[in-house]
Model the fold of this input.
Amino acid sequence: MDHSIVGRQVAAARAFVGLTQAELAKKAKISVPTLKRMEASDGPASGLTNNVAAVRAALEKAGVEFTNGEQPGIRLKKLSETVADLTRQIDIRQTEITPESDHEKPSPNRAMKQLRRAHDQNELAVLKNRRARLAKPKAKRKPK
Done:
């Protein structure tokens, strides 16, 4: 069985399950620059074999299945696993978002904190929308 993956598969899989580069790098226990180089590879994912394997394992744990036939691709594993994983990601994100302080004077530092908080809230909304789409049963068409 061929376990090699293509760099673009890594980027697509990460985006598909809603992970940032920093989150995936942390899960795979590699650096963000290493992951960036891996994702930018035109052919097979560049990097040490153990790093590529760690990224693959982290993505598979997140619900990705790599399809390596004539055209490398990705797909999601069982629906229940993916919804559960998204729920875990949402729970983690909600605890990481720091509440806004009204007591802090206006400053560039405060503006950056507000920007980071807005970014985190946006990513949280994206995850919630993705989970809602996955959890929604597909409508069956009535025969004519």
